[in-house]
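Researcher: I'm preparing a figure for a lab meeting and need a structural model of a single chain. I don't have an experimental structure, so a prediction will have to do for now. The sequence is pasted below. Please return the structure as tokens so I can convert it later.
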Amino acid sequence: YDLLYAAALCRAKADWLVGITGTRLFSTLYRRTLNVGRVMTPTLALVVERETAIDSFKKEKFYTVELDCGFSAVSDRMAEKKAAEKLKAACAGQPATVQSMEKKQRTASPPKLYDLTSLQRDGNRLFGYTAQQVLDYAQALYEKKLLTYPRTDSNYLTEDMKDTIPELCELAASALPFSVAALSVDASRIINNGKVSDHHALLPTKQISGADLSSLPAGERNILTLVTVRLLCAVGEKHLYEDTAVVLLCGGATFTAKGRVVVSPGFKEIEQAFFATLKKKPEDDSKDEDAKALPPLAEGQTFEKVEASTKEGTTSPPRHFTEDLLLSAMEHASAEEFAEIEGAERTGLGTP
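Model: Understood. Here is the structure written out token by token.
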């Protein structure tokens, strides 16, 4: 515990040096109360930097040529419209040949259980709740004995909880407002004594089975559903898929096409069932669905008389911070610098 004591003492001294002293200094200099803090001030700096980058961003047009071979293949970006039109003319009605093809088997591991920050991020991303609203809903559920203690910064459970997980998963699955396919429960992935300090990760409690969830306020019901779905995903199987990248040659230029085939849905099956109940699909999920399967292809295969078209696009500025993105930036601030410090457990500006 000596190092925990030293870390807490360091934070307390930083609060005096930065917070109390800095607040007095700047309030005196500018003759109004200006709050300075070791978390507050760098967070403000993150937002200012992002807004400055957005304000100074200059949109630039670019052009691509797209081939229709029964599937779509796209050229590299070009700054000039004339160059794109020239390439389109060179390709129109010409054969396109498969130059190379690469297939890669990939896996996506199940997500970790929620700590408070990751729950707040998903609450904001999926439902538009503020971080404070998510905490208030979680606190209300905790007081109703439907959720474990919410103010936690751990994504893991302790060894003594391992045997209770399969039963909890069954109760959780039966309480959800949509049906869940046959469960597979691998609790070993979410058990780690060394990564639980004061409180373990967020979980629904066994009381969820007897509770009338439809009578809960919408915010509380949504947060409880989020935590329940995350538990079932975290103990589920890996998501397996195969990515294909194809390079075609046409009109003296190369074009690329990408496709994806799901081999085994794993935990994503539960996640997709949950997303289907939402009014608005999350952006990153829509991107995954955009990658469709390609037809069977072979190197040297030729597509006769392909159609070509030009597309115009513009570069995008950085996104404005949402609470989800800002919480992530706060949690991972200075990650590169922290990586160089041997034995540093955390990155970021403070505890959740």
